[in-house]
């Protein structure tokens, strides 16, 4: 199967793009303010120390997403994107011999990066996570410790562990000497920003790596950072891997992202972004009303819609047919990385777009969906 990134590239080439989940909406009315600040940020980026740029960015980021600053900050490792953070984690898992349980469905570049780095992965389904059996987290031979790699909230479903469920997994990891890895790229979409999962994970005493990302929420023309924070015991190994590919991310990027985070915090920006996502989801629901496409998990907080197709439609054929009409969305198959047939009847529709652009796109999607005939196209 083609990777999701390849499908996303098709949509980047032209036409209507509801394929990638990057933040492509405007900055909630703050565009001018940011543009005015750019010369100063550029000048500052030449005189500030790298550590100070990192410290200021971290402070602004944690404040925006409602998390307490902890001594985890001393163990932050920065990358140009969260895919590179995942790549470093994968190299670390491989070097330490971890056998890794990975949530399914999820974005396909995570299993791809893990496999490319030679990490053995096994699927764990979302509904297993609520009551995961301890044996799945135990090393079978003592030589290969276990890791569990979660995405929270998960892409594409929006699935989010409750505080109690996360606590259980942390304790099981601690007791079995397993490693908890959580990709928190979509954390800003969580409905409850007062719940500090990172403090909870740190306090549980388990080994952990948390992956963070600005790219899914800050629409800064794809200027973004990915970074990891981790427990003491894994930090040195992860730092060694990171040092092979990174010296530092641009202080200009860090200061720009700091400025955006501060503006969003002061203006209730996350609430505005969530309101945009809700408005776009509602217009998608209206557009798809009475058509064969059905939006699933309408309560999902993500800037992403996940829709089910009728039994006689196939995701790949439908998405190709749409692409031929210059309309880009993603097929569900690659998300089910351990068994792509499970995604045959799903498609993913990005919601992080300007509202007027999205409304027009949703109307166009309705026109296309109502004329689509699966029996006249190949499979
Ligand atoms: C959960 C998750 N983590 C990481 C990434 C990678 O993000 P980037 O392309 O910015 O590296 C993605 C991409 O969509 C994702 O869904």
Note the total helix count.
Answer: 13
What kind of assembly state do the chains in view correspond to? single chain
Structural class: alpha/beta
The termini sit apart by 13 Å
**Strand proportion:** 15-25%
Short description:
The protein has about 375 residues and is of the alpha/beta class.
What does this structure look like?
The chain is an alpha/beta fold and 379 residues long. Helix content is 44%, strand content 15%. The protein has 13 helices and 13 strands. The chain has a seven-stranded mixed beta sheet, sandwiched between helices. It has a four-stranded antiparallel beta sheet with strand order 9-10-13-12. Helix 2 packs antiparallel against helix 10. The longest helix is centred in the C-terminal third of the chain and has 20 residues, at 269-288. It is globular. The chain starts with a helix and ends in an 8-residue tail after the last helix. The model has no long low-confidence stretch (mean pLDDT 92). The chain binds pyridoxal-5'-phosphate (PLP).
